[in-house]
Amino acid sequence: MAGEPGQKTPFYEMHVRHGARMVNFVGFAMPIQYTSIVNEHLRVRSTVGMFDLSHMGEIEIRGAQALVFVQKMTINDASLLQIGQIQYSAMCYPDGGIVDDLLVYRCEDSYMLVVNAANIDKDFQWLLDNGDGQTDVLNRSDACALLAIQGPRAEDVLAKLTDLDLEEIVFYSFARGRVSGCPMLISRTGYTGEDGFELYLDPQHAHQIWDCVLEAGQEFELQPVGLAARDSLRLEMKYALYGQDIDRTTNPLESGLGWITKLNKGDFIGRQALLDLKERGLSRRLVCFEMQQRAIPRPHYDLCVGGQKKGQVTSGTFSPSLNKGIGTGYISVKYAGVGTELEVLIRGGLEPARVVKPPFYKEGSRK
Predict the structure, then answer these.
(1) Alpha carbons 261 and 245: distance in angstroms, whole number
(2) What Å distances lie between residue 241 and 141, 211, 329, CA to CA?
(3) Is residue 276 within 8 Å of 270, Cβ to Cβ?
(4) Burial 150-166 (b: 16+ CB within 10 A, else e)
(5) How is residue 321 annotated by DSSP?
(6) In whole numbers, what is the pLDDT of the chain averaged over residues?
(7) Among candidate residues 294, 313, 144, the one with its CA nearest the CA of residue 245
(8) Residue 3: pLDDT above 60?
(9) Strand bridging mode 302-305 / 308-319
């Protein structure tokens, strides 16, 4: 195991103990893999795996005007949330570019925004810069360890460790309770297409919870999963990755996030630009494509039609579930229709591909 410099998560020693290959990921020492990418990927698809997500950011929004502030800053309609519910959303710049995609948790007397690791400082500053003077914006990231349990047997594993009625925690909701005696927030969202839970806990309990989950999952062959398999799992579902599929140069409408963009909810940062864009019409779209032969697309490869560049790959990999190369990329709307024949320029050669309807993997256990 070759360690790499970076901020250590509360689970760092557990990664080392299990022989993970560590890398520096956006300033955090994170496990890229423990055994093999394919093995870890298929474990999550078949039974269950667990991920260290402690590098993600948690930002608390409090005050009498908290909802008004969240509504101003995010593109989805947070007024629809009841206590204990979660919403997928995003923040935009005034020009419609994406600041970050995130989750909004409605807690008893506050909101929690769960943001991408690479964007914690940027997002926190963006919220502060747009503050109303009446709302408290608190970065709680360092005070939170986060462990995800993902796979068809995730509920069976967690049921051994808690008295909570897990059936009551429906998709995109959360509850507070104890796991192995430790108090925490337990949510049910996921980034893999499989059923699963996220455990938000005090870092002092991290090692205890890791060991308890690992032991409870033994009968289902639970194993730790690294960043590489997490990436292939999310791509099979066409879940966007900030910094590749979405960033400040892309907008929610062209990136397939129109379904969370509530232009009629009232004003929010970026709304006017998105209204103008919708009226003008999009020039490009983020599409899913599958390779038609044995080839693997990678980010920044050219997407071509008739040998002429018409777009670019944003995410690409070998899909262990489908046993073929898959990818996403932005391409002129003229060529974005399902079934369109494309080529991907790979090492000087044009490899055939076809636009397909997302997600790539359609057999997930998500409830």
Answers:
(1) 17
(2) 20, 29, 12
(3) no
(4) bbbbbbbbbeebbebeb
(5) T
(6) 97
(7) 313
(8) no
(9) antiparallel
Q: Supply 116's token pair.
A: 């991408």
**For residues 73 and 146, is the Cβ–Cβ distance under 8 A?**
no
Q: What is the pLDDT of residues 23-35, one digit of tens each?
A: 999 999 999 999 9
- What are the backbone angles phi and psi of residue 242, rounded to the nearest 5°? -65, 135
Separation of alpha carbons 26 and 145, rounded Å: 17
Report how far residue 61's alpha carbon sits from residue 107's, in angstroms, rounded to the nearest whole number: 10
Strand partners, 342: 353
Which pairing describes strands 7-8 and 308-319: parallel, antiparallel, or unpaired?
unpaired
DSSP state of 173: B
Alpha-carbon span 235 to 321, nearest angstrom:
11
pLDDT band at residue 1 using 50, 70 and 90 as cut-offs: very low
Q: What is the DSSP letter of 41?
A: H
For tokens 């925690």, the residue is 169
- pTM for the predicted model, two decimal places: 0.96
Q: pLDDT tens digit string along 60-77?
A: 999 999 999 999 999 999
The CB density around residue 279, as the number of other CB atoms within 10 Å, is 7
206 sits in which H/E element? helix 206-216
Q: Give the residue among 300, 310, 297, 290 at the shortest CA–CA distance from 356.
A: 290
212 CB-side CA count, 13 A: 17
pLDDT at 12: 97
- All domains of the chain in start order, with CATH: 7-49+157-166+177-235 (3.30.1360.120), 57-142 (3.30.70.1400), 283-358 (2.40.30.110)
In this predicted structure, the answer to whether residue 2 has a pLDDT above a threshold of 70 is no
b/e code 34-66 from CB counts within 10 Å (16+ = b) = bbebbebbbbbbbbbbbbbbbbbbbbbbbbeeb
